[in-house]
Structures are given as C-alpha cells and as structure tokens.
Amino acid sequence: MLKPTPIHIVERNRRNALQSTGPKTALGKQASRGNALKHGLCANPAVGVVEDEQAFIDLHEALIDRFQPHDPLEQGLIHRIAVSLWRLQRAAHIESAAGVLQSTAISSASDRVQQWVTEITQKFTAIDWVEITDKELLRQRAIQKPETEGQRWLRVERRFLLHADRYRDEVLMADGTAIQAMILIIGELTDQLKYIRRIDSTQAQMLAWLMGESAGRLVEPVDAEQRDASYYPDEQRNPTPIDSLIGEARLRAEGDPLSPALTAAIQSCLTDLQIKSRCTSAPYTEEHEAHIRTNTLLPDASLLDRLIRYEGHAERSLFKAIETLSKLRGVTVESVRATMTRPSNGDESLEVSGERTTWSST
Can you spell out the DSSP letters for 207-243? Predict the structure, then answer.
C-alpha cells in the first residue's frame, strides 16, 4: 500500500510549479513552438513553420491571381497547391544543403596531401632556441672562448629529429595521403637538385631522411651565431651511401646530369612508396579520390530515400489538387490519335502514328 505524500512536500511541489509556467511573452511562446522540430521536412507551411513566411505568402497570392478562385472550395484547393509546391521546393533545398554539408565535411584527399606536405616541412625545419644555464658548461665555454664570459649562451636545437624516424615509420607510413606527400617532397627536392643544383643543408637532410635514412645522426646542437653554418649529410662523420650520392649531385659541374646510382635510388624509393600508399588503411589513389568526390554529390542513403518518398507524396498531392480544381471548372482532357499511311519505295507501306492531348473547357 502506497503511503500518502506528506503535506509539506505537496506544498513545496505546488510552489515550484508556480515558478515553471513556461514562456509568457508572445515572442517566447512562438519560439518555444519549435522546440520539438527536428528538420521541418514534413512541416505544413499553413501553421507557420516555414523557412520564409513572406515567400510562401507571395507564392500563395501569385497562385490566387493565376487561378482566381470562385468559392471557398477552390480557395482551399489553391492553398493545397501552394503547400505542395512549397514542399517540393523545400525538398530541393534540403537535398542541396545536405550535399554542401557532406562535401565540406569530407575533405578532399588532395587537400590532405597538401596539409601533410606543409606539416612535414614545418616539423623537419623547425628549430628551438635553448639557453644554456649549466654553470659547468658556461665555465668550460668561458675557458675556451674568453670573449664570451658573462654573455648569454643560446643554442639552436632541432628536437624533432630525436623522434623523426618514429614519426616517419609509424605516422606517415600508415596514411596513404601522407606517403603521397612524401613522394611530392622527394620529387620537388630532386628537381631542385637536378635543374638548379642549389639545395641547402636542411633540404639535403630531408631528402635523405625521406628516402629512409635516419635523422637521429643529424642531432647536433649549434651555437646561435653558427645557426647558418652548412651541415650537409655527406659532411657528417660517417655518411651513408645516399648521403654521398646527394653530396656528389650538389657538387657536380654545371650541366652534368644526376648520377645513374642516385637516379636509380630515387626511382626505387618512389616506386616503393607508391606501392605502400595503396596498401595502407587509408590508401590514396586517383580512383579513390574520384570515388570520394562522386559520393559527395549524393546525400545519405536514408535521407535520399526520405526525400524521394516525400517528393512523391508532394507531387501526388499537387496533381490531385490540380485535377480536382480542373474538374470543378469543367475542364476535360481529350486525347486525339491519328494514323497516316503512305507507300514506301518497296511494296510495303509505312504507317506513322501520333497522339495529341488537348485541354478544353466545356
């Protein structure tokens, strides 16, 4: 058996109810009418749920001027025609808006490739300014360079190089668009090395790194006043074969082509990257890019199904209202068939048939 609610709780609830009466102003009540509205696809413009109220009024008045209703029944049919036309326009607007939203939500693969190019370049070339405050290091520096005693000691470090190899192997190589960005950067640096012969130390290091060499060997902090010094990969203590080939290319005589060994190494690297870009969880191919762009032209399957059913209902309602209005005004439909027979070049005859539909008022 349920126990009765204590009287003090009942009174408290009544006082709270007096404070929760909802909107009181006309504007607030009008706004609260749409609280349960999700998309307005099936909303009736006659009840005020309309995208542009004045536009619907103009449409309704234009139809009244066109048909000149004779009685309330015809006025109702014309209003139904206006509502059906409005709903067909609404469906078209919703389909267009859905396509725009979907196309903006799905970024183009080529755009992501360019984003990766920017990110890779910025990360690899980024430098950090670090002030050395260790007293022992400062003392040793003052002994070696007495003129620097009492001065701030700033060093340039490239901290990204400490984990650049892991970034390349675990992040870039797992995304087809990132691999495609690597291919673009390698191609650009190769063209610059081939035709201009001017490639700075950081670009030479990036080219070797993108071709699979380790970036950890390049971690050598330098003093701020030496930040523009050249540290090419082939000038390191133990250069790799790729480092040496890049060094030979940048030091070759003007007009000489790239060495066959470097050309073969670059081509092999590009071929390997192309294959890997197709085998990742997010592959990049021109066909895949075209498929993504095509999909953005159509709305979601469930939304498209609702739009088709909605448009079919609106069209049936429109044609039914027009047909009823036509019958009320005594308009009939007459179909005329005509057949013409004429002889052909042979013994057979040629028959041509046609049909014409005319509207006439009785």
Answer: HHHHTT--SGGG---EEGGGTT----GGGSSS--HHH
C-alpha 26/C-alpha 149 separation (Å) is 79
For residues 161 and 215, the answer to whether their CB atoms sit within 8 Å is yes
Whether residue 308 contacts residue 302, with contact meaning beta carbons closer than 8 Å, is answered with no
Q: What single DSSP character describes residue 195? A: I
Please, which pLDDT band fits residue 223 given cuts at 50, 70 and 90? Answer: very low
Percent of the chain clearing pLDDT 70 (strictly above): 66
Measured between alpha carbons, how far is 178 from 183 in angstroms, rounded to an integer?
9
Residue entry with tokens 């668009």 = 177
Give me the amino acid identity at 125: T
Q: Can you give the pLDDT at residue 17?
A: 74
Q: Which residues pair with 336 in a beta bridge?
A: 356
**Model confidence pLDDT, tens digit, residues 295-334:** 555 666 777 788 888 888 889 999 999 888 888 887 654 5
